[in-house]
Amino acid sequence: MLFTSLKFVLFIVVLFVLYYTVAKHDQWPLLLVASLVFYYMQDYRFLLFIVITAVTAYILAIATENFAARRKAYLKEHKSEMDDTKKKKYKNTTKRVQALYLAIALLINLGILATTKYTNFIIENINALRSEPLSFANLIVPMGISFYTFQTVSYSIDVSRGTVKAQRNFWKFLLFVSFFPQLVQGPISRYGDLSQTLYEEHKFNYKEVSLGYIRILWGYFKKLVIADRLVVALKVLVSDSEMYQGGFVFIVMMLYAAQLYCDFTGGIDITIGIAQILGIKMAENFNLPYFSKNIKDYWNRWHITMGSWFTDYIFYPLSVSPTILKLSKWSRQHLGNAIGKRIPVYVACFCVWLTTGIWHGAAWHFVVWGLMNFAVIMISQELEPLYAKFHAKFGLKEKAGYKVFEIVRTFFLMSSLKLFDCYRDAGLTFKMFATMFYKPGFGSLGSSELLNLGLTSSDYIVAGIAIVIVFLVSLYKALKGRELREFLFEKYPLFLVACTVLVIVIAVFGAYGVGFDASQFIYNQF
Amino acid sequence: MKKISDNDNAPRMRVPELSIQSQSVESSDEKIPVNIEPVEEPIVKEKTVTELLSLVFKKLFTSRRFIAICCWILTIVFIALTVFGLYVAQRLVMPKYQHGIVEGSMIEEYYQSGVPHEVLFLGDCEVYENISTVTLYENYGISSYIRGSAQQLTWQSYYLLEDTLRYETPDVVIFNVLALKYGEPQSESYNRMTLDGMEWSSTKWDAINASMTEGENMLDYIFPILRYHSRWSELTQTDFDCLWEKNRVTVNGYYMRADVNPEGEFPPAMPLTDYRLPEASMDYLARIAQLCRENDIELVLIKAPTLYPYWYEEWDSQVRRFANTNNIPYINYIYLRDQIGLDMTVDTYDAGLHLNVTGAEKWADYIGAYLVRNFELTDYREVPEVATIWDHDVEFYNNLRDAQLAEIEQYGELMSWGVNAIE
Amino acid sequence: MEDLIEILKDLHADVDYDTCETLIDDKILDSFDIVSIVSEVDDKFDVAIPAKELIPENFNSAKALWALIERLMED
């Protein structure tokens, strides 16, 4: 069931009505049932995977918490009998056992993720080295497995660290893992955040429901009017890389930047909007990514929940681990201060981007894409002192023109990196990127070829106008610091006019139904 | 006497913006902002009516409950507006079938007809292009309607009969048997042309269910905007002109063509692997017969006198057998072309596939004679209320023919009808 | 405390660490800075800050960070 199917819309309407008619304490069980039904409707086998993940994480979290509590109580009771070294030793054993619990939880859950998603990738690579090929395993990849696995992993770690309390009610925990809007394309929620509103009793709140509603509409607008329209042309352009080179690669770059943005942020708007009309607060996943000043800034604004996940659970633990710190100390003594200082960041950052690449998909071009991100971040990090000097000398930092330049530069940089995702082949991507420079223009095909990509000129016009609208709405947020919908809500009749217009525009100008492929969400199989 | 302070006077008639803070609706009426003057003091004499009114307004507009109620009312108004807007958008993008391809307009035109119909024709182009309803009226006083549509499948005929029975019960139903050869849904566009025009009822629901090809779904029929929205880029003046009212394209279901293109050679009949008429269509034929029996309607089966698409001898005998067992008349007019007086060098407009207006008049005259001979039908020429309406139809019919003939004279072919008129 | 301020000044000289309480919230310190701080603190005070303590509350001000270090020293 795609977000863009009418079936899904009806599903939400029915859920919404039920949600506010059942007794308040039945609200979260209703959500659980809805989530399981939603997942069941995709493929009943998916349920098995998600339940295994939930059960193991649930049991191990309680086990580790109980264990820690017992040990702490023991320590308190025998405080007087133990000296400091003994105490320390006792604590360390506790930590070690907890680490073991955590390891089991991670092994099982990341194991399922790895097996379903990466087995065939590994077989493919083994086959490249062997003469007799192995046959591919016929595995299903449960929808949203990367998202719910990451959520579960963060929960296991947080409980082990003692930063959140383990959920003792299995059904509540299962709801956290399977809450349906986020199964399609995230965001990756943290238990500590989501649990605050997920299980609460929710009264009908006019403002929240209104804002959630217009956010859902806005998501559909971006997705149906822009993303699903542009994807038609993109598919053609990418499928024939021999024919569409040079200037067409630039077109691909621009179209994909718009398409991916609208598809992904649109989907997230629908997700968060649905949660909002149900009174549930979800973490934001985007914050005007195309207004980023540099690549680091970009990754703080694009797919935020994924970035912070990697920061909290890979980057920090790695960079402050005793081994790395020791390595850093050692290299400071032997290789000099400059290198020694950089070691933790470099090693951790490399690992983050390697795993980020692999997480995005089981293919080499994602690995290359991840490492390219790493390279760009490191280069800009190293150049920063140089930049600073440059800025200081010309006093550029404050000038508005320079800020725009930075934003445009970052946009093009990130859009070029996205080409890996487009062509899905690292070598081809480099080649195509190069043709932009040595074969500029549209070659013998001419720009009229754009009308042979499955889109008519009126399609381009509609998409163009819609993109301008999206840009202006983003600009409003960038300048005023708040969402346009909040402003509209204050001017209430205007808000309703906006909703009405959006519904009609989506219904008429949306690229759905016969004649357009219902393109799956790009992040769907993650 | 307390004087109202300036402070209080100033913003009197200003309407505060309708905004609700994050407070939920139910719990909030007591918290009226503090700066409101209590009205209980005897201030009436001192104040003008306007002042008093404005005070009431002020109190109203700052009451949370009042604002909440306003918001709800506004919401309902806008939901209604949204639905209406969608409805208009839907009407706009739906094909109008006004020029060239007019078959999609036929089914809904029935509901506009102001006269009772004692004879109802069901079938595909072999009825709606071949029988002049005006001739039946002019020559015999028969008031008839052709509920025909392009490639009307047998179950669609059945449901159209069911649909017609919701409005009136004809005395005679005449079903053309050509469509019996189709046992499965054929094409989405023909489905659409037959089904979109039907008014909503359980009958339409059943008709859609019986007709859908693979890939079609009920929701697209319930909300046609879902199917047609991508026409937004192809809208023409016609779509706006005919947003609320369509032009008439038939005369009581008869689609007129006045041009001539003599009958030519048809490709030889291909041998079939299986000459049995499909169970599905024969089943629905039986249901048609059943429905007619239940409503005391005489059913007549006919095969139009045109030779192509080919009507196999084997099919003919199956229909004949069905007719005999059920005691229903079956007339195959292919064998009666001479009696009808058809001259296929002048009586067809598309090389013999369909009759033109002269052919349709001849066949209608022949059928009319048969009908008055065998059934007791009212001569509506004698019923003034009906006759006035029919007279209008006759006038429309004659004007239409004159217009077509004029075009043929001028251009040698039709420009505003048929293939040249497709937008 | 002075040593800590010095470490921080090394990263961003133009920030007033005595008063600023939104080092993380206002994105003055990014994740790279935090890692540098942890490694410097480990060097100077021989205190290992574990990953679970790397949360905004502990890094938003020099004061909070110092409190964290003192707490970890006691352990």
Would you kindly provide a written description of the structure presented here, covering whatever features stand out?
The complex is a heterotrimer of chains A (526), B (423) and C (75). Chain A has helices at 6-19, 27-42, 44-77, 84-129, 145-161, 170-178, 181-185, 191-198, 206-239, 247-277, 295-299, 304-319, 322-335, 337-360, 364-394, 400-423, 426-438, 457-480, 484-490, 492-509. Chain A is an all-alpha fold. Chain A has three domains: 6-189 and 199-204, no CATH class; 205-282 and 456-518, no CATH class; 292-445, no CATH class. In chain A, helix 3 packs antiparallel against helix 4 (84-129). Chain A is globular. Chain B has helices at 6-9, 49-62, 64-93, 106-109, 125-128, 133-140, 154-165, 188-195, 202-211, 218-222, 225-228, 237-241, 279-294, 313-326, 337-340, 357-374, 384-411, and strands spanning 119-123, 144-148, 172-176, 298-303, 330-332. In chain B, strands 2-1-3-4-5 form a five-stranded parallel sheet, with helices on both faces. Chain B is elongated and about 100 Å long. With 75 residues, chain C is an all-alpha fold. In chain C, helix 1 packs antiparallel against helix 2 (31-45). Chains in contact: A-B, A-C.
What is the strand tally of chain B?
5
End-to-end C-alpha gap of chain C = 18 Å
Which chains have the largest interface?
A-B, 31 and 32 residues
How many helices of chain C? The count is 4
CATH superfamily of the largest domain in chain B: SGNH hydrolase
How much strand content do the residues of chain C show? under 5%
